[in-house]
Amino acid sequence: MKKRIFTAISVVMLFAVIFSGCSLPDFFAAENLIRPPKLTGENAALQQVFENTVGKDISLYSPVSGNHRASYIFFDANSDSVDEAVVFYSLNSNSSVVHMHLLSQKNGEWFSVFDVIGSGTEVYKVDFYNVDNLKNLEIAVIWSVEDSKREKTLSVYKIASLDSSVDNALVSMATIQIADYVYFDVDSDKSNELLYLYYNSSEQTYSLNARLLDFDSVEKAFVPLSDIAFNSLVSSISDILYESDGKELRIYLECISPDNEMFTEILVFSKELGTLFIPQPENAVLSELTARRNFISCTDFNEDGFLDIPIPVEIEGSYVISDDDNSEAPVLIEWMTFSDGEFTTLGKYFINEKDSFALKLDDFVRYHYIVYDQVNNIVQVRLRDSADENNIVFSVSAEKSEENTGILIGDGFLGHRNDREFNITVTALGESLYVTEEFIESLIKDL
User: Fold this and answer.
1) How far apart are CA 168 and CA 164, in angstroms?
2) What is the pTM of this model?
3) Which domain does 437 fall in, by range?
4) Structurally, how many domains does the chain consist of?
5) 210-260 pLDDT per residue, tens
6) Does residue 404 belong to any structural domain of this protein?
7) Residue 156 lies in a domain
């Protein structure tokens, strides 16, 4: 669940340059943004046919997200075990217009099928679905516009024919302004639905909306099933996750706020009601409750097969020892799960992302605070309002280990989990409070 968006895009673009044969000076030349890769073997004929059709004075585009990120994207459109290909490109003489070109082959010979003008200046993502349950797959393309990182356009194209002599071999089935989308079986009817998120364009605050569409085979078009609006303000969508327990389907939206905080919204599709709704905890607003700066995503924290939601909990008096003056005070993460219409808490944990472990501190929240020594990577739990100047109750640190046997070292207990050793030290103050090394080790969870 994976959030370094700008870094990831940069790495993808760099690899696209390297593997397409571009030198760095050529890459940074505006007229050669992306050069056509030189295909080899039997695919060299594909490139030859493509260039004979559109010319060589072009720039290719690779999707920046999703499973298909090559310049030439291969797929089997009609399940005949013979690949088709789509290529995204622009003419260097008109670089603001991006095309999608479809090619097929017969008896091993490639040929051009059809060319369409896209709905954006960049290609964000490409997927293939059988929307109408007919012979040919549909092509779903998310187009983005260079000066708008927020809104995108989803175009769904029907492959009406793979015959190059047929006009309109590619037909637009839908063009929708979106923030993001997922295509899956929402209502357990063994047929996929399209759920897309979009912004309310009539407002400057970018409130988020969701719409559920189904494909009507009679009308041969998408028809709305359910609409819903969120009250939260959203700058972008980081991820969409979903799960089902057989009674309801839960959709988790990992959102980024205008203040650059992550928060979670939940959509639930009830089979009984046949519609979407937004659940909220009692006396709280989920988007406010889950707002967090550490960008920890929903995950199956307690390993029961269902997602859990992270909620930040500030502990009064906690602070960080760090060389960085901008370091923020440590917070606990209270994990919460939603099921059967109820929110249930699973415990409060200190998350050590560096060493991939969590420390459950439910029993220490009320009368203690946390000091996280980032310099030495040690977390200390200290007693609040203690008369003792040295008010450390216990401390935990981790280091890499090749061994897998526990040994005693001085006043500390060295416990082992996978490839790490946890050095647990309980002070005399901790012992007077009946805290033991073994008890602290039982609170450690691998991540």
Assistant:
1) 10
2) 0.79
3) 317-330+354-447
4) 1
5) 999 999 989 899 999 999 999 888 888 999 999 988 888 999 999 999 899
6) yes
7) no
